[in-house]
């Protein structure tokens, strides 16, 4: 049975100097600032907090030591998903290694009156998969979880990112989080992808072009005609791998594809609230003349099906390309990394 939850909680309004043109990220950021702390550090409101058994135990223990309760139970979503068997007919005893973690999450949820999606609940699944499936991840919201690939949910048009255990405790206690304002990157996927090229190929091609450190310090907006042509699953796939090139998070601005997917989801707004929400969500896009700190353009017509061959996400080539020759790589660090990957995997330069 679904617990009645708030669609959104009000954020304290503060006076901020804004440019007339904003990126999609700027609009989310500015609407969630509670207080400017210092320099580029701000206190932000968190709209959705996903909790699982693997990283929450120490966070709940921190609350207990400080004699605190969970601040916003209605904005906290708990699920068993990390240390759990996937075998048919599983029980809590199927994977003994996870028993203690699962039991502790159940205990903490009971103590703090939190709804728990347990292993035998038909809604149960991977935390950053069920958030879109259930309508927990909504456009324009902030969503955090103690899982590095929380950025997957950015495909729904929200700003979603992974946090550490001490941050999990802070969000549980205050429904807020301290953040440095990241830089803004936009990756434009233009044109039409060829036969056999899917979302995974698009993001792997990007990582192969820009490297695994290109996104450091940035949030990334994925845009362009090829992105608009993707369904929700493809968008989630691309946003999931934002972390693989160092970005804090990735997202796709919401559109009719998003709204159609969310309509009728259990935790999405209903009735008149739905109409109001969609009207607002349609404003969540980058203004035409909004400025980004970095832009990357990818011609999707040039992308072939991709395959990774090494020990890093940037070790990627088209299926019809031979393996690279380290001798042709000018960067000594990159050259050494390829040599070590070849040695580890028993590969040879120039082989298909």
Automatic annotation (TrEMBL):
Q: In which pathway does it act?
A: Amino-acid biosynthesis; L-leucine biosynthesis; L-leucine from 3-methyl-2-oxobutanoate: step 2/4
What the entry lists under Pfam families is as follows: Aconitase
Which spans does this entry mark as compositional bias, Polar residues? Answer: 309-320
Record keywords: 4Fe-4S, Amino-acid biosynthesis, Branched-chain amino acid biosynthesis, Iron, Iron-sulfur, Isomerase, Leucine biosynthesis, Lyase, Metal-binding
What cofactor does this chain's UniProt record say it requires?
Answer: [4Fe-4S] cluster
Q: Is-annotated flag, keyword Metal-binding? A: yes
GO MF annotation terms: 3-isopropylmalate dehydratase activity; 4 iron, 4 sulfur cluster binding; isomerase activity; metal ion binding
UniProt GO BP: L-leucine biosynthetic process
Q: Where is the Aconitase/3-isopropylmalate dehydratase large subunit alpha/beta/alpha domain?
A: 26-351
- The UniProt annotation puts the region (Disordered) at 309-330
What's the Enzyme Commission number for this chain? 4.2.1.33
The EC class name is lyase
- Which reaction(s) are listed as its catalytic activity? (2R,3S)-3-isopropylmalate = (2S)-2-isopropylmalate
Assembly mode? Heterodimer of LeuC and LeuD.
Q: What does this protein do?
A: Catalyzes the isomerization between 2-isopropylmalate and 3-isopropylmalate, via the formation of 2-isopropylmaleate.
Q: What is this protein called?
A: 3-isopropylmalate dehydratase
Show the taxonomic lineage.
Bacteria, Pseudomonadati, Pseudomonadota, Alphaproteobacteria, Hyphomicrobiales
């Amino acid at each position: 049975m679904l617990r009645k939850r708030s669609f959104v909680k009000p954020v304290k309004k503060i006076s901020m100097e804004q440019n007339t043109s904003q990126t999609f990220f700027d609009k989310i950021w500015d609407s969630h600032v509670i207080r400017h702390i210092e320099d580029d550090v701000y206190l932000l409101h968190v709209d959705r907090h996903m909790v699982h058994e693997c990283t929450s135990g120490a966070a709940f223990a921190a609350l207990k030591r400080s004699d605190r309760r969970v601040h916003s139970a209605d904005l906290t979503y708990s699920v068993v998903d990390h240390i759990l068997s996937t075998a048919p007919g599983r029980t809590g005893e199927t994977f003994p290694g996870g028993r203690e973690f699962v039991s502790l999450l159940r205990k903490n949820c009971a103590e703090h009156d939190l709804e728990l999606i347990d292993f035998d609940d038909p809604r149960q699944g991977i935390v950053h998969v069920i958030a879109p499936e259930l309508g927990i991840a909504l456009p324009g919201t902030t969503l955090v979880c103690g899982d590095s690939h929380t950025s997957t949910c950015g495909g729904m048009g929200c700003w979603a990112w992974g946090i550490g255990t001490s941050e999990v405790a802070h969000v549980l206690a205050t429904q807020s989080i301290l953040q440095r304002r990241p830089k803004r990157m936009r990756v434009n996927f233009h044109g039409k992808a060829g036969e056999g090229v899917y979302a995974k190929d698009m993001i792997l091609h990007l990582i192969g072009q820009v490297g695994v450190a290109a996104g450091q310090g940035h949030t990334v907006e994925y845009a362009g005609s090829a992105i608009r042509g993707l369904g929700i699953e493809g968008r989630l796939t691309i946003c999931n791998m934002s972390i693989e090139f160092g970005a804090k998070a990735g997202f796709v601005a919401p559109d009719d594809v998003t709204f159609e997917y969310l309509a009728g989801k259990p935790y999405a707004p209903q009735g008149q609230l739905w109409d109001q929400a969609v009207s607002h969500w349609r404003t969540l896009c980058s203004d035409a003349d909004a400025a980004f700190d970095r832009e990357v353009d990818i011609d999707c017509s040039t992308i072939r099906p991709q395959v990774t061959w090494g020990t890093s996400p940037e070790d990627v080539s088209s299926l019809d390309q031979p393996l690279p020759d380290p001798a042709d790589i000018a960067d000594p660090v990159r050259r050494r990394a390829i040599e070590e990957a070849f040695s580890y995997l028993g590969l040879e330069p120039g082989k298909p």
